[in-house]
Amino acid sequence: GDSVTQMEGPVTLSEEAFLTINCTYTATGYPSLFWYVQYPGEGLQLLLKATKADDKGSNKGFEATYRKETTSFHLEKGSVQVSDSAVYFCALIPPRGGSNYKLTFGKGTLLTVNP
Amino acid sequence: GAGVSQSPSNKVTEKGKDVELRCDPISGHTALYWYRQSLGQGLEFLIYFQGNSAPDKSGLPSDRFSAERTGGSVSTLTIQRTQQEDSAVYLCASSSQTGTVGANYGYTFGSGTRLTVV
Fold first, then answer.
1. Which residues fall within 8 angstroms of residue A75, CB to CB, at 6 or more apart?
2. How high is the mean pLDDT in each 10-residue block of chain B (118 residues)?
3. N vs C: which end of chain B shows fewer Cβ within 10 Å?
């Protein structure tokens, strides 16, 4: 079945450091890929998405590129802020048909940014 | 309301008791999902409701788990004879669209119910 593997945390960085959180997936066909963020005490929020190969999703300074050849969707940010401290989840949804409504998530990566 | 509302936000129960978790989706959203977030396990799909269609219950871990959605709106997740391994955060999400379109809009998640079985 479909699966998502993301780097285990926790990740601790200083403010203004460069962030990479790795994510790879296993799926049939070409799924849509997502990064969700969960701030302390809040629900998950969609951070960015990409629906086809070579698409780049971006939001709030975060970017991720859909790499079909490496089945990856790594999250990056050039300069993190304390307010970016949260849990980040990589996720996929299958292509049209079948269970095309189930988000499959990675286990999440806790990011802590220190001032 | 403006978002997905879940209640209670925290629930502590004794092993063997039954619990009910409630989800109020965004008004007008036809799709509703329950996920379970366990430490070290990420988020597991539990159940999906879409309009009047039969729900997809394939993610429910055992027959102690059941869910209803009344009138196409409020949903209740019931766990009977709770066990310690049921301790987790139970998240509800709703969407006006399904599949890739819904996910593109970003399913709206509630803040969850933290269940602790002692």
1. A19, A20, A21, A23, A35, A47, A62, A63, A64, A88, A90
2. 89 98 93 90 90 91 95 93 96 81 74 96
3. N
